[in-house]
Fold each of these.
Amino acid sequence: MALSKVWVHAELTPEGNLAPISLEILAKAREIADTVEVFTGSDGSAVAATAGAHGATKVLATGDLSGKLQGVHVAAALAAAIEAGDAPDLILAGTTYDGRDIAGRLSVKLDKPVLTNNVDIDVTDGIVVTTPIFGGTQLVKTKFAAGAPAIALFRPKSFVAEESGGGAAEVTTIAVPDTGAAGAAKMIDRHVEETTGPKLDEAAVVVAGGRGLGEASKFELIEDLAKSLKGAPGASRAIVDAGWVPYSYQVGQTGKVVKPTVYIAAGISGATQHMVGMKGSKNIIAINKDPEAPIFGVADLGIVGDVHKVLPKLLEALQAR
Amino acid sequence: MNVVVCVKQIPDPADPGALNADHTLKRDGKLILDESDSYGVEMALQLVDKAGDGEVTLVSMAPNGEVSGLRTALAMGAAKAILVSDDALKGAGALDTAKVLAAAIGRVEGADLILAATESSDGYTGTVPEQIAAILDLPSITFAKSVEIADGTVKVQRQTEAGYDECESPLPALVSVTAGVVEPRYPSFKGIMAAKSKPVDTVTVADLGIDSALVGWAGAGQEIVAVDAAPEREAGEVIEDDGEAHLKIVEFLDGLKVL
């Protein structure tokens, strides 16, 4: 049974384009619903063409929200539109910073549950989402039982983005009602960290380091190896929390989900927290001193050895080619 | 400056997790303070210290009157705690949890700031802080990597995909903090002793004026239909480094044509 209408959050990149996660969700939305519309906390004109090409017929746009926070304002606009009779069966977004804020605020406004961190959805018998638990070792299927609209958030890379060949979506304004005291927080300035090389969640090769590196300065080995493989460096939560590298490097449940062609885990034991973010890689190479490290359980090639010995030699061999 | 910190007491993440027959998480062993929450507790203690007056109050929801994790946070320096413990909360989802915690926060007089972790280490829905703010009709800034208070305003660096946003909000407000926002202190022996006599107000759902028929399994608005093992990834070859293991890696990469 296909749903009649779903809304998908059109999340924007810093450059103002539709984010990959929104395109991924749009591909699934098209499969489960007759009508797909996107909503955005922006003026919407910049995403109309891409959203249309990925199957959306309408862009529900709040208008420019610069200086305001997305969560409270977008949720207020959606709740008002729903109250005015335009309710979808289902509202979808990514498990992202703004996605969670919008869904959290909206769930209270509508008094409906929100289910996050999902990796799949099925609408054959009600709306059922699949969520990994215990580090992805088990999958829970949960059915929404509170009536429309259901609110579900998905982890990045749960679906594969695909164009449908549709024309530009029609932009419609949804008014943001007065949010009162709750809307008083402001965004003053935006800092975009400079990055070079491919993005962590888009790179074909990811080289990630963990505690086994011993000290922050040794992360250079990871960066050098990533560079020589034209890949991106990544990190376990342990060394991000320890302040060795910025949060943007983190792979795992609370960081980025990556699915590269090759994932090299160096000095990472494989806490479930970490494995959730990289288990979907096509090939995994692990280097760790401890032969009992859980990471070897998912590795296609496991090297029991010292990263301080293996990595420099590997680097040298690659550079000699 | 009075700060309320939402804290969760969870099964030790080092132990393998398990579910009860009704699909709720097994929580019958000793529960510990979620490490993610120790950052909020530390942040709160530092903000109160800096302000020179006020105190830190903890709010928590846990079965069986569990206080082990609360005692850890009290030993760090929090003044008191409110614990909501009620069988009716079994099966509670994120929205129920937010309703209960918001009602508990309502019992704290003169709260200027509410802190929470961005998500718990066991449920990790990541929506409860924003839901609490919505229920209390407060402004909120989530995913903070730094928090400062000046002239009745909270200034936050909010984590984003590409870097961070500088945000600010008038007080009272809710802020959720990421791990690494501050370095949590270890409780001192003196702190641990003092924590034993600090007040923990244990209340039920009815005490908070919430209808128990609307929370927990009864009010979750969701139904677990199956729990299955995820398809396992098979382990491949594991070799001991004999000084030449790097060549094996080169060969492997060559085979994948990524070189």
Amino acid sequence: MQAVQEKVRPSPAKTAGAAIEVSHLTKAFYDSQDDRVTVAVSDVSFEVERGEFVCIVGPSGCGKTTVLRILAGLEDELSGSVKLHSSTPPAMVFQEASVLPWLTVSQNIAFPLSLKGVPRAQQETRVREMLTLTGLTDFANALPHQLSGGMKQRVSVARALVDDRDILLMDEPFGALDEQTRLVLQQELLRIWETTGKTVVFITHSVDEALTLADRVLVMSPRPGRLVADMRVPFERPRDVVEMRRDKRFWDMTYEVWRLLASPAEA
Amino acid sequence: MSTATTILTEDELRRLKAPARREKLFRFASYFSPLLLLLIWELSSQFNLIDRRFFPAPSAIAETAWRMIVSLELFEHMGATLRRVGIGYMMGAIPGITLGLILGLSQPARRILGPIFSALYPVPKIAILPLILLIFGVGDASKFVVIAIGVFFLMFYNTMGGVLQTPQIYMDVAKNAGASRFQTFTRIAFPAALPSIFTGLKLAAGSSYIIIAAAEFLGARSGVGFFIWASWQTFAVSRMFVGIVVISVMGYLTILALEALERHFVAWAKN
């Protein structure tokens, strides 16, 4: 039963050492019906520092979700290696509504704790903290079908944070939301990340979202997915997701990433 | 709400609400349409428009029913049938749900054991009743077994179908949250399959009463099925109708009870 209580956190500003090391990762899928091999990810290598926020951007079908699923242990690599330097397994926030419809908001958030058999009182304290953190306190006893898409993703985020794991993997968590809701949740995610100092790998197809959130942006090419760029995002923290759009560098970088995404993948 | 009523005129509100009001009227009328049939039956029987030997008037049937209620004879038969259905139902449902969950979750189990169930499923349950009587005798055991077999297959297929329809993402969530295989079974597969399980439970309840009626025709000295059969042999047509109505009502109430449970446990699946 691992740390469910809040630990004293090192500041997100770099405590040295890599949290994630991926080297020469290749993944392919085989469809035996059509006897067809699809290479999803080809020879991808990158590192993520402890406490760093990294976004992987790429067009749909470029294998970025596959990379994340391999990091989460939901999929096996074909070759190459993935090393996670962490005492806890990574927590994942999924793409679609992954909230369990038969559990209330509180029960959904408590799910990882209840699987581990954490005492009821301790669960309740921790869930209450998460409800406050994600602004869900008023919806504690609601069932998922009563919630909006944005609310459901808040629940997913709260569930991923509840047992305080070191690494957070996020698979286009805000992809299905409208723009206003997405902006609000991005700002909240930044606030939460700044207070918890977790290592985050965030998948998105939105260049805008990647630049808003990340310390570093990894750009992937269309299938077979390869890394084509590794860019440092210069904006200072804490960030204001609206204000930073006045910065000229934001638009220069947007242009730069778009140029990379638009260039045809070399054979 | 209050702003809407001030913006809209009286006439607009009336037109807006008209379909809902019509709907309510139809629903009210729908309660009475079966009674209308009963009334036609009563009148046709009273005026000899139909053969009273085969279709005694509902009032005459009700009179017979009342005598049987007062003498407690009816409850004896109902009790016997209910006990057989209840026990047989449990004997079929519990293994059916368990195996449905296991085969739904495990592809190897489904590959290997699936064909066995597919091969046995099409056998009509009534057709094997003589065989079951031969093995388990004419006592209650044979009734339990034949109901259990019927219930088992419905529960097995509905549960397995429910598990197979579970979105993969719930399994991923469980794995990422650190669920063991057993926890995935109890905390994900079972609740996810619950709507299908309830569909199965309702179908199984219906078929349990069909099977018990047939089983009691042949080898029983009590029960509503026996009672219907015995009435036929003595040409007591009113009593026969009482039996038919009673077993129908029993089935209906069982399904109502299951629906109430479903509303309680699967409230999340509405919408």
Amino acid sequence: MTALSQQYDQRMRKDTRIRRLVTLFGGGILVLLLVIVWHLVSQTAPLFISPSFEKAQTFDFPDRIVLSVGDILEDGLLVQQASPCGIETAQVSEQNKVVDRILKPCTHSLSIREERDQRWLFDISANGQVRIQGIDGDNATYAFALPETDWQQRLETDYAISLPHIAIRVTTASQHLIFWVDTRRLTDIHKDEYPASDAVVLLPGQQKVVTFQGRKIALTERGRESRQTYQHDYPINWIGRIENSRSLYVSDRSGKVERWVVVNKSGRFEYVKTYSLFLEDNEQPLTVQAHANTNAGFVLTDMGRLILFNRVSGELLDIIQLVDIPISWSWYGNRLYLVYPGKVDVWTINNLAGVNTPTSLFVPQWYEGYLGPEHVYQTSSGRDFNEAKYALIPLLMGSLKAALAALVVAIPVSIGAAIYTGFFTTRRWRKSIKPAIEMLEAVPSVVIGFIAAVALAPVADKLLTSLLLFIVTLPLLLFVVALFQHRIAVKMPTRLRFGADIAAITLCTLVWAGLSLYVADSVMPIEIFSGSSKTTLIVAIALGLAISSTIYTLAEDAIESVPSGLKNASFALGATRLQTLRNIVLRVAMPGLIAAVMLGFGRAFGETMIVLMVTGNTPIPSWDLFESLRALTANIAIELPEADTGGALYSVLFFTALTLFIFTFIVNTVAEWLRYGMREKVKYD
Amino acid sequence: MIRPISPQQRQSLVINACAFATATLLLALVALVGYMTWRGSAFIWPDPIYLVQYNEPDGEVKQAYAQWHKGAADNSTVRLSVSTSSRPYQTQSILDASQFLFSEEVEQAAQIELVDGRTILAVPAAVSDVNNAQLPLSELSVQTRSEDIIDRRIAYIRRVELARLHENIAIYNRREVEAEAPGRLQLEKAYAALQEELRLLEKKQQAYTLTVRFYDGETFSIQLADIARITYPSTMSLPDKAKAAAISLWYFLTDSPKQANTAGGVFPALFGTVVMVFLMTIIVAPFGVLAAVYLHEYAPKNPFTAMLRICVSNMAAVPSIVYGVFGLGFMVYTLGGQIDSLFFADTLPNPTMGAPGLFWAAATMALLTLPVVIVATEEGLSRVPNSLRMGSYALGATKFETVWRTVLPIASPSMMTGLILAIARAAGEVAPLMLVGAVRFAPDLPIDGTFPYFHLDRQFMHLGVLIYDGAFNSQPDTKGAAMMFAACSLLLLVVLILNIVAVVLRTRLRERYQ
């Protein structure tokens, strides 16, 4: 007895254990889905959180004069004054161990300038001998001579480097002398002269200088070959450039800082006003700096305010008030080093990916080099300080264009086929046709994409011409067949009628398609579509084929599930098959058909391989069917393997993935709800 | 009012239109499969060798041995694969139909396929043996055999003896043993001796050559070691051709890709696909089946369960690339990174599991195919008549015993269906794999003879990725495209057969418990 009850207990315990296990797995689905959503959201979140400054660390250097600071948290070098004259580079992480020492005579004038993570020492002797040498890594040296008399008259100097060009400004009592040096031809030094009453800013990257006085701005090319002048609204008090010289920041008395961006007007580079940043009254910028890999920039003002902004859209991201005004600064990754006499403050910028605000993703932006605000998606520019262009509109339009074009191809074919097998044909034929069409769904999309890309795309002209011909003449064919079909059909035995029907049509289609192809080749040699990109149309055909079996399966289920009682009642009232189809079957099945189309659309929207392989993957914001496209999905496949984890592009790509996820989720839920409603209705009708 | 057509005819028109739509879809399927097979078969079916005469673009008349593939897209051009004395390895040249003068089959010309995947069309003339003596062609098989012995010895030295020495030297290096240590010197001596032996053997091997003659009479000698196969396609009868095609098919399935995926075979890709799918099946089967059992047998009928069902059907509709993004972001970088910091901290910062690889690919695919398995299994469970469950309960069985002993065995074909559909889906899906571990070329297979034998962290090749890559790197209508078409046909064949099996299984189950 006890043995039996023990056994019973054991069985019950096991039952409970298994129940728990199974429930765990059932709940696991939900957990899985939540983890997916959570992960996508968490990786997207940086885009929606504004970046902010945070004070991280202070290095005290009481006994030395810091000239320039590298990325010292990441083993960068500190540059300090050497005694008696010259510079030393030191490794901060190793107790300020001196790495290198460059000693110079004290009569030399020394200055440090930075260009793309490389710092250069400008060393000019008393008689104008210039020696420029790299401090970090690159040990290139450039040596040349400035005219001794010019140099000795100097009151003030400035240096700018943007390889291969170097510009040196020597200001004397009466004029500014600008010396232009091309590092590839060091003997060839060009000298330009400007009146001392103008203020001068060097733009080495563009080989230009900006001069301003009062409300007048003038941009002059090296050699004074061309000159553009602008009249500003208010007197200008400061002009700054960012490192690549492609954007200028013009500050005026009204407290406004305007960004001027270079545009290429048929070969001539001019600067055009875009957005403005607004400062306090009497506040003036001291510097504008751009971040090397993102669209972030900061303005440091003479009131000690540090303003972080998006340098493309002009949105302010964070503003902090500094206690003292630093004497120099450098920016590496998310670390901003501010140099003060005797100490270096390190500020970190949290969530730098948040520079790409939703506005900068969805609103046209005026990028450097463009003629106006545009939607541009371009990530491949590898050069530092180029603007990142993450406009998502072209990608969204590409996805929608491909999916909608595919629907246009798929809907008539798949709904027609669904009506045929679901309503017109016999059970026997249905049983053999339906699985065959459903096999289409199993064909891997990479295979369809391969055929479309390798076999169809090269003959796109011919294919599309013949297709056009085929579609235009098709109604005629069907009409002619319809005229005679009835007469022939009544003479056939009932059993054969349906088979003969589909067989005859298949044959006709085949012959007609072959004829169209032949005619397109020989009779119509004019290539109607030549000269424009056909890839969107090819994608429409390939993608249409891929989704048509999805639509077909669901639509067929809907049509087939219309209760036969309804159909029979309609027949009994004397309706023909066509009338029954129109008034009963399609009406009842409509929610199911809409759901089928929606799910087909969802699949087309999310399809990757076909669009990736067939289209040129060029993100163009255009609805034109003769323009190439890039879809959201293909974009992820192309860019994600290359994207830095946690970087801005990574977040943007996760954002597109989340968009796809939510979009299909909504489409699918609505479609399921429609189908559910229809099932319920059919059940109780 | 005059009706242009009678109601009868109008009805016919609609039926015809619908039938036309059906016919279009069916024809599309047939055309797809047929076209693939036709183009793919060009890769394995031996093409006869012709003597062709054609005008070069500069007007010069040229004669050469060539093959051409009839898969050309239009009639106005001829695509010849020509082999001439100036360019012995077969190259494609595209001619205008007007440049093409005449062609004639040549029986004595052979198609000589080299180990590296290139091909030469020429007439074999003589064989030279180890002493460089010119021997008649009939000696070919004898000389090939004796060359083979040397070849095997070389392979043995390379693969076994040298590898062992390398390993030992690597150990010394790791332990930072001094350069003058006696053990090390000994190893280095042995290494040098083997190198010397190899050099001699290779020199000997180089003496074995086959001399061939092109049409213009120029000769060319090919080392026997480089030759993979010699066939005479123009003399083949139909059964011979079928046999040659079967051999080609075998090489296609078992060889590695060569000449930038334009020749050779697809073995690593096929193997990678199979291993990945196998691993995926192991992961997805218990998850999918248990989740389906929960949904159908255990879950109470409440809104929560309804929501779970909606979740499952939504998961099925989520674009596959999104799973790839999740797989890369969560599994590879987050989970993989964690695993690395816990178990493989000694090799950091080089990632072990924190980089795309086989296991993560399989896991991502399992996630992708989970809804397929759940839906199919649940459908099977719902087909099991309730009376069977009641009978089991009436006999005193617990819920678990009922499910385990009665319901699941009956629904097992549906589980099989689900798994097969999942396998078919995973075999054909490419987009997420490109993010989580499938690469266009992987130097090693995921399973090999070095510890731990089954390398879950390795990147692998996949048929679909190979095809994707082929679409970008192959010119249409070359032999390379033919290989890609063959790979496509293989993939299509596997996927379609799996689907047909699944459909048959499902139909059977449905019919059993109608």
Amino acid sequence: MMMMEAEVIEAEMVLPPHLSFKKIQMYEKYPKGQARGRHWKHLKQILQAENYQNYPPNEPNYVNIESPPSMYPAKKYCDLTGFEAPYVDPKTKLRYANADVFRQLRSLPNDYVQRYLALRNAAVVLR
Amino acid sequence: MSSFSKTRRPQRQTDYDTFPPSCPIVIDNGASTFRIGWAGEPNPRITFRNVVQRPRHKATGETVTMVGDQDPALMKYFDCTRSSYRSPFDNNVVYQFEIMEYILDYAFERMGADGSRVNHPVLITECACNPVQSRSKMAELLFENYGVPSVAFGVDAAFCYKYNQRLGICDKDGLALCSGFSTSHAIPFVNGEPVFEACCRTNIGGYHVTDYLKQLLSLKYPNHMPNLSWEKVEELKMEHCYIAQDYCSEVQLFQRGGNEAEQKTRCWQLPWIPPPMEERPSGEEIARKAAIKEKQGQRLRDMAALKKTNRISELETELEGLEFLLKELENVKESEVQAFLSRTGYVSKQEIESAIVRVTQSLRRSKGEPAEVEEKTESSATEKYPLINISDNMLLPEQLKEKRRQLFLKTTSEGRQRAKQKRFEEEIEREKKNQQDEEKRLENPALYLEQLRAKQRELSDKVEQRKRLKTNGSRMNGNQNLSSNVGRGERLNAVQKERMRLLTTAAFDRGKGEDTFGTKEEDWQLYKLMSKDNDDDDEGPDVDEAELVRVTSRLQDLDPTFVPKLDLGSFQTVSDIPRVRPLTKEDFQITFGVERFRCPEILFQPNMVGVDQAGLDEMAGISMQRFPLKGNAIEERITNSILVTGGSSRFPGIVERLEAGIRKVRPFESLIRVVRASDPVLDAWRGAAAFASSGQFYVQTFNRDDYFKKGEDWVRQYRLRYTI
């Protein structure tokens, strides 16, 4: 094998490139210098290719077993503290619980505001 | 959800050859953890985090593959800048089979596999309703790459339920609530078989809890971001997070503050070394230092004095020489003057005289006497400028020239005089103002300070506003981060914008109709506006700025707590820590109170992280609603045996909370019993291992021929029967 530090070899950190029990080795299957990882369909694409619409709707599949939205009205919580939040700051759109939090919130730089919003998927996404 | 950082790297097994080819290998392929072992054994042989990283080995430059967690101490030999942890999973579905292959390579290698193939049947777990693409890719990989004789797929939650059913923890009819790494499932069971028609999945799991905690803490403590690694936050979650029985009342406890909230607040002390305390220097020390300083000062003073005396004596000898020369010159005959002068190096008598004047002046200056020259000139204006008052026609051409020179000299010296006078008056004025200020201050210090502060604020606002107007014609609010949102159109200041407008209109107006430009006088003003010179010409702000500087400095003198407002673009931390305070132990503490139950709360309220799906408790109700068989009290029996499992079910309080929550969504007085799995993390593998060890297992596997002959549709409908 390659020249490695003794402790690295001893710890067996690195996966050996050649394994006897494999019919096709990694380096044969994915030769060096080839674009990797591109050709793997993401879940969204996989699900599209599954063509679930062609099967009876009562047959369970990955998409239709998803839970529906909650029946309870969504409670609003303070983005900073997690307290119940009766107010929304019209400028930053952050929810807040009281005047103290508001003061804190107004001192936040814009990227922090966006990160807080992103936590509940409410950030403005620029494309 | 185990604490990965503590697990040692698994040893390669040595007894692989002792297992007959008929003995199945059992794999629990979880989104977070991979477990592999032999059928019939109580525990998996190898367990590791289901990730791969491919860093570059620094010494050889070779890209290597590492599976699972590594000893951080050994990672120094590798360059990980371009590779991070990669998982074969998208949500809970395997999609990246290159990474999956590395993981399987490692798993079989650690199991001790040798020979030309992995000659054992494989039972591997998958998610509920796994897309057929993922399932067939996995089967293909096992057949084609490892030469596995046959495979079987099963759902982890089902194996777990069966295992606990065998232990008597749950009944043959029941519900598995499995909260894993990336998803949570509710799967009902009838007669010990899962009913996938009635199951449901919410895309929230332990990953989201950890991520939420990590984000919240790093937003709260931006300075400690490097300390908040994924592994560390995971550890914090495991150790401190719990499920509140009622989120709102729990959070109110913290909002009110008080003893109980304090007790529930956890604090993590980051490594912190107190800075070396500066000892107050003793009186002796101070005296010694002062003495040294004084000594150095004296030396400098002495040197300066010596230099001064040297210079004075030098000048004096020069003056003496010159005076002697002058005297000599008087004695020299008219005809020999030229010769005499050429010997001395001077051209004329006047030159010697002027040299004398010059030397006397510098002598006087170096002696520290006030220069009396100007006063002298004042007193002797008529003597010095004798030609000024004589009319031109009475003078010779040379004298006329001389008169003009004298006139010029006179006006400049007078101008200087005037400027000096003005400075003097201003000084007096300022002094007076300061005195008045001081009187006012002494009269009522508090009021004065308040007024001063108000004035400072007002002035700084004024100056700021003007600055803003100058840089940008139309900004609405002052407290926005200036640097962050200067867009393309906003780079020019107001004056520059106006200039651009004029230029463009001028350019576009050309050739439109009759050109009458220049007929009126005002037209030419346009060029003045266009020219670049008038960008910075207003006087107003300078006065204000000067006043602001004065007031600010005065405030700084009087008020120790006063901190001048910093520039707009500067970063403000969340907490109002004054900048100058030295850092203490408390600054290196990460405290979390509400976060302890706020983060796992997303399992029950996915809305908190923007996932619009039902939470764990509601999922049980939804599953019951989707249940196809009604009557015969089957629903009662199911809700009477709810098994909670999966890594995220280990939060304290989850069973009680679930029971209360499910009671809300089920009919009044339903029987509801919620139990925790014997081992929420390992039971799935154990159930699968027990399943694979039964004699009936082989009926449910399929081999390579089956796979290719029966086609995709068959693979899609393939479903394990869990009761053997």
